[in-house]
Write a structure and sequence with these properties.
There is one protein chain. By secondary structure, this protein is α/β, with parallel strands linked by helices. Helices cover 28% and strands 29% of the residues. The chain has two domains: 100 residues, Immunoglobulins (Immunoglobulin-like, Sandwich); 293 residues, Rossmann fold, CATH 3.40.50.1820. α6 links the parallel β15 and β16. The N terminus is likely disordered.
C-alpha cells in the first residue's frame, strides 16, 4: 500500500469515527425538549415568553419526573429558580419578559438513575434592535493602519512544500509558512490550488479557538477556488496531535488573555494582522484572478472573518458563524458579552481594570463590523452558550453593508450540515459570479 492510499484510508476511518462520536454526544437516553410558544422564538419587549417542557424516555413523555428549572438573561444570574414534578411528562413554564431587547433563557435539568440531563431554549426579545455597548477608541483606525504599514515592511519569505499524500486528482495541497507580524514570527497554513492551468478566486479560512492541526479546504478548492486555511499561533499545523494537546494545556493555555493590558502587545494583534498577511500571500499567487477574495470562519474564526474584511479592502465577501470577541464589555452593563467572556463572574475582578477595558476596545469585533463595506452572510442560533446571541446580534446590527442572516434558533455552538451547505454555496457564488 502506497503512502497516499494509506492516508486516504486513515482519513476515512477518522471521519467515520468522528461521525459516530458526534452522534453519541448529541443523542441522550433521556431527552428534555424546551420549546418557546412562538414558532420563530422571537417576542416583542414586554410580551411574556412561555416555555413548554417535555421529558422523553424512549420517545414517550416520562411520567412523574422531577425537574429543576431556571429562567433569566443568558449566562447571567437567574431571575427565577424552582422545581416541580411532571405527572404526565409535560408542563409549561412562565418565563417572564424583558423590557429591553435581549435574550431570556430557560434551562431545565432532571436526574434519572443517577445521571443528570439538561435542556434549554432561549427567547429573543426584538433581537434586531440590540445595540452594542462597545465603544470605539478615537484612534482605532489610525492604530490598525499603523499596524498594517508595519506589516507591509516585512518581506513574506514564503516556504511551500507539496503534500503529495493529500493532493487529489484536481487539487494540489501545500504546507505553507511565511513571515508574519512581529519579529521572527511565522504564519502557517495549508494551501489548496486547482491543478488545471488558469486564474482562480481565492478564499481564506480562519480558525476557531484552540490549538490543533489543519487539513486544508479541499472541498471548495475542487470547485475551482484557491483556499488557504491558517493557524494563528505561529506553529506548524501538521504536527503530531499530542503537541497541540500539550500546548493547549500548557504554554498556550488561556492565550486570549495574554497581555490584555497592553494594546500593542495583546495576543490578538499579531493574529489580526496575520490574517491580512495571509491575504498578502493569497493575492501574490500567480493562479489568483486578481479580484475575487473572500474570508470565512466560525466562532473565533467568525470574529476573524469580520476583522479581516474590515482591515483588508481586497476582501470582497465573507461569511461569519457565531462570531466571538463581540461586544466584550456588555457584561459590565448587565448583558452578557461575547467569548471569551472577559468579565463574567469568574474573571470580572481580574479583568475589570481601565487598561484592559481600553485595550479590548481596539479588538472588539463590533468596532470592525462598523467598518464592513462588502456583502456578507452570517449565521447562529439562540441557544449558543459560548458566543451569546445578544453579542452576535450587537455586532450584526451595526453592519451597514449588504448582509443576510441565517437563524436556526435551536442550535447552540454548532451548525447543521444544511447551514454549512447554504453558507458554502453562497460564498462560492459570490467568488465566481461575473463582476
Amino acid at each position: 500500500m502506497n503512502k497516499k492510499s494509506f492516508y486516504l484510508i486513515l482519513l476515512l476511518i477518522v471521519t467515520v469515527c468522528n461521525s459516530f462520536q458526534v452522534q453519541a454526544q448529541t443523542e441522550r437516553f433521556i431527552k428534555i425538549i424546551v420549546s418557546p410558544d412562538h414558532d420563530d422564538w422571537i417576542y416583542k419587549t414586554g410580551e411574556t415568553a412561555k416555555f413548554e417542557v417535555t421529558v422523553f424516555k424512549n420517545n414517550v413523555p416520562l411520567k412523574n419526573v422531577k425537574i429543576y428549572y431556571e429562567t433569566g438573561l443568558e449566562r447571567m444570574t437567574p431571575s427565577k429558580k424552582d422545581s416541580l414534578v411532571l405527572t404526565n411528562g409535560r408542563t409549561v413554564i412562565d418565563g417572564g419578559t424583558l423590557q429591553q431587547p435581549g435574550f431570556l433563557r430557560c434551562i431545565v435539568t432532571t436526574s434519572f438513575e443517577a445521571v443528570t440531563y439538561r435542556g434549554l431554549a432561549t427567547a429573543g426579545f426584538e433581537p434586531y434592535s440590540i445595540q452594542p455597548y462597545a465603544q470605539m477608541p478615537a484612534d482605532f483606525l489610525k492604530f490598525w493602519e499603523s499596524g498594517k504599514n508595519e506589516l507591509a515592511k516585512t518581506p513574506m519569505d514564503v516556504k511551500m512544500i507539496l503534500m503529495e499524500e493529500r493532493c487529489t486528482e484536481n487539487t494540489n495541497v501545500y504546507q505553507v509558512n511565511l513571515r508574519g507580524y512581529g519579529k521572527n514570527s511565522r504564519l502557517y497554513g495549508i494551501l489548496c490550488v486547482p491543478k488545471k492551468e488558469g486564474k482562480y478566486p481565492a478564499l481564506l479560512r480562519v480558525p476557531g479557538a484552540g490549538i490543533r492541526p489543519y487539513a486544508g479546504e479541499t472541498g471548495i478548492a475542487e470547485k475551482g477556488i484557491i483556499t488557504f486555511e491558517i493557524g494563528i499561533h505561529g506553529i506548524p499545523v501538521t504536527l503530531d496531535a499530542q503537541v497541540y494537546t500539550s500546548l493547549n494545556e500548557g504554554a498556550l493555555s488561556g492565550y486570549p488573555n495574554f497581555n490584555v493590558d497592553d494594546k500593542d502587545r495583546f495576543y490578538y494583534k499579531r493574529v489580526y494582522l496575520n490574517c491580512v498577511r495571509a491575504n498578502d500571500f493569497l493575492t501574490s499567487l500567480p493562479q489568483y484572478d486578481g479580484s475575487n477574495l473572500g474570508v470565512v470562519g466560525g466562532s473565533q474564526g467568525g470574529a476573524l472573518s469580520i476583522v479581516t474584511a474590515a482591515l483588508d479592502s481586497r476582501v470582497k465577501c465573507l461569511y461569519a458563524v457565531f462570531p466571538a470577541l463581540s461586544d466584550l464589555t456588555a457584561t459590565l452593563n448587565g448583558r452578557v458579552g461575547g467569548w471569551p467572556n472577559y468579565f463574567d463572574k469568574w474573571s470580572v475582578d481580574y479583568n475589570n481594570k481601565p487598561e484592559k477595558i481600553a485595550t479590548l476596545g481596539y479588538y472588539d469585533v463590533v468596532n470592525f463590523a462598523r467598518q464592513i463595506k462588502v456583502p456578507g452572510i452570517y449565521s447562529w442560533g439562540f441557544n449558543d452558550e459560548v458566543c451569546a446571541p445578544s453579542s452576535t446580534f450587537a455586532t450584526y446590527n451595526v453592519i451597514k453593508a449588504a448582509k443576510s442572516l441565517i437563524i436556526v434558533p435551536e442550535t447552540g455552538h454548532w451548525t447543521y450540515p444544511e447551514q454549512n451547505e447554504k453558507l458554502n454555496n453562497w460564498i462560492v457564488q459570490q467568488l465566481k459570479k461575473e463582476k
